[in-house]
Amino acid sequence: MPSSTLQVYRLPALSDNYIFILVDGRQVAVVDAGDAGVVLDFLQTHNLALSMILNTHYDGDHVAGNRALLTAYPGIPVYGSAIDRGRIPGQTVFLNDGDRVEVGASIGHVLSVPGHRQGHIAYYFPESADLFCGDVIFSAGSGRVKDCTYGQMQESLAKLRSLPDNTKIWCAHEYTFDNLTFALTIDPDNLELKSRMVEVQKLRSALQPTIPTEMGFEKRTNPFLRWDSEAIRSRLGTVGDVETYTEVRSRKNKF
Ligand SMILES: [Zn+2]
Fold first, then answer.
1. 140 vs 159: CA distance, rounded Å
2. Three-state DSSP class for 22?
3. d(CA 8, CA 24)
4. Do 99 and 43 share a domain, yes or no?
5. How many angstroms does the Cα of residue 226 sit away from the middle of ligand 1?
6. Would you list the DSSP string of 36-77?
7. How far is the CA of 56 from the centre of ligand 1 (A)?
């Protein structure tokens, strides 16, 4: 059986987005091309040709580059949620929870994760433990709830939280410093959170990325994944998973 060798490249784009390029053998995918120019420059520099576009959801900073990439690479498939039909430019493949996508020999599992958007999906590659989760989980944070309920978002976060601890989280934004500033107001005695802040301050002052992060670490430090922490519940005065998540989300909205 051929084993997959998924290589991931992280391209900074727009003000604080990341676009990801996935390479396995001769196949090249882009995840959430918010800016085509960044992608085309990278492909040219590395002498690569694009095979497909994978979208997590339809927000402009995730799909704005689709049309220009289709002009450069006519006819390549554009993947997105079936729920986003008519919203993702150039979409040709309409995915549901449990579907599979192939990048060379690497198999990505499609996970439906509504909360930020109804049609938000994540792509999880179990063999290499890579997760592309758009705006659902960030390092020390989580995306805003837009056209969904808080309960839906908490359920989606629980679904992603159940992935293995060594899962690399390739989230779509560099929000880590601001997220940590907020997280420390929710969980001020968490020693790992405090040392992460020191590490991230060093990385960001050297203009280095803080992504990817790891699921096991996020489970211990990200307040949006810690609705069952007794320390957090007693600080917030909440009971129950959705109530605790909702209180954290509401406080972040006002932060
Ligand atoms: Zn976004």
1. 17
2. strand
3. 9
4. yes
5. 23
6. HHHHHHHHHHTT----EEE-S---HHHHTTHHHHHHHSTT--
7. 10
The predicted structure's pLDDT at residue 111:
98
Q: Which of 123, 140, 170 delimits the end of a domain?
A: 170
User: Which pTM value belongs to this model?
Assistant: 0.97
Contact indicator for 27, 104 with CB cutoff of 8 Å: yes
Whether residue 121 is found in the same domain as residue 227:
no
Ligand 1 mean position, distance from CA 180 (Å): 18
Q: Which of 26, 28, 23 is nearest to 69 (CA)?
A: 28
pLDDT averaged over consecutive 10-residue blocks of the chain (255 residues)?
A: 82 97 97 98 98 98 98 98 98 98 98 98 98 98 97 98 98 98 98 98 97 98 98 97 98 97
What residue type is 146 in one-letter code? K
Q: Which residues, 6 or more positions from 202, have their beta carbon under 8 angstroms from its beta carbon?
A: none
Q: Give pLDDT, residue 128.
A: 97
What's the 239 CA to ligand 1 centre distance in angstroms? 30
Cα separation, 54 vs 146, in Å, equals 21
The Cβ of residue 102 has, within 10 Å, a number of other Cβ atoms equal to 14
Per-residue pLDDT, 47 = 97
Amino acid, res. 221: T
Q: What's the confidence (pLDDT) of residue 113?
A: 98
Cα–ligand 1 centroid distance for 60 (angstroms): 8
Residue 54 lies in a domain: yes
Q: How far apart are CA 211 and CA 216, in angstroms?
A: 14
